[in-house]
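Extended Data, panel c. Modelled sequence:
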Amino acid sequence: MKKLFTSIYLLVLLNGCTLSMYTAELDALNSDGEPRKALLYWSKTDQLIGAAKAGPVILMTECSTRRLSFDETEAGIIYRGEPGRDRIAGQNETIADGTVCAKIETQLKLTELQAGELMLTMLCEAVYDEFSIQEGLYTPAYLKAREAPYLFDVQENTSWSLFGETPKAPEPPECK
């Protein structure tokens, strides 16, 4: 009986993991030039045995209908824009498929991202018309494109899980 309890205990410990939710808020201009709050977040799971898993990184902007999802690629952690919905800042045409619209400069891998300073460069802006604006208030606009990277101060909230539940994602910034 003691072996059974020991085996169960070890099995639970081996399945357990540390769950971290990383979040950062920033006050900045959106692509329409309006002051807005931006929220950046991602989750990370560190298992006792096995490789860590993380991401994707999500960027939400106050009063925006868009959630930008950053993924890990050979080129680093990037957001690929959507043809017809994004354009390089200062250009009239929308982007081609696969165009990098934003990049996290701090690390190349999602599992290497940590609390502290995170630099994000935004290259594109949202393209929309009167049909893509919801209720006259919500737009697809997100952080304004600029040459200098945005600097986010990332906070970490860590918990322990026996069964690897995913932490609850934060709510988008309230539109004021």
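The chain has one domain: 2-161. This feature is highlighted in the accompanying rendering.
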